[in-house]
Amino acid sequence: MTTTTYEINRGRVIAVAAELFARNGYHGTGIAELGRAVGLGRGALYHYIGSKEAVLYAISKDQVDKMNSYAEEVLDRGLDADELLRELARGLLRNIADHRAEWAVFFREYNALTGDRRDEVIAARERYEGYWRQALDRGVRSGVLRQTPRLLVKGILGMLNYTYLWFTPDGELAPEALADLFLDALINGIHS
Amino acid sequence: MTTTTYEINRGRVIAVAAELFARNGYHGTGIAELGRAVGLGRGALYHYIGSKEAVLYAISKDQVDKMNSYAEEVLDRGLDADELLRELARGLLRNIADHRAEWAVFFREYNALTGDRRDEVIAARERYEGYWRQALDRGVRSGVLRQTPRLLVKGILGMLNYTYLWFTPDGELAPEALADLFLDALINGIHS
User: Fold this and answer.
1) How far does B185 lie from chain A, in Å, by closest CA?
2) What range defines the domain where residue B65 resides?
């Protein structure tokens, strides 16, 4: 399948929009400003993205969809619970590190989405949380993990998602190594 | 010490601003809009808060300062490391639950701060992280906790801070109980 010019241009508009929204806020960025940043007039911009809210939706949904596809693939590998959780965490931290602007916009601004777009992003997020629950449940069934409260998934995702705020991959520590550092504490505990 | 009318009015302006910034973004909220919401003209508003950035600074700094004072007080109680960590977490989750708008604004918008204000908020945040490190170090020294990487503090705070995005205290689960749920997983691990 080849990528069309339309897809390339649309992807560029969304990437530039993510940078602008991350820097100046969704509400603080005008559609005209986005047009100037990508060198497109109002008509061309509309052709690629439709509306400002449609861009916010694309920024948010694309990354969550990618994480869902990745989680489905990892869950199908037949890994032990320990390695399964680590792989989920590694993939998420790698994606956040590679798309910091998109994740910053998603976490800060998804509340600005309305109607179906909002519902779809929330549903996709819940699906992602569900995959983590599946991984934890699999660990309990196989006897590797103890039973923990369902809300713990929110804590694990908080630990990982929060990296968008502070983690800059600078070569010293890869996102995958950071994921292992966190998962090691979580799986084995910090008790001596 | 009595609270002056000035302090009461200033506190009200800051609380209303937090709600507006949380709903419409810092960049998406005008100073005139804030004035209308609190029923003050430009001059009176200026008297209480000075500038929009000064409000963002107050919203962010007040909560972080409160958490620093709380951490200092808890660290002085001579608690065991396990209970010390739990108390730090309980206090943070209670504060986030009671000030969701302020924390949402802080996490989303502190990047909009500039100059000294920015430096001071970042320094206060680092002080807070330092208190968590002290608590972990104390646990290692007393033999209760194992030595863990310094970056783990960022993970623990992510787990806790992220609650501003999803946790609504509705009477079923108090923030303190949620803190214990997370800390139990972290301290004891999820391994069977």
Assistant:
1) 7
2) 53-188
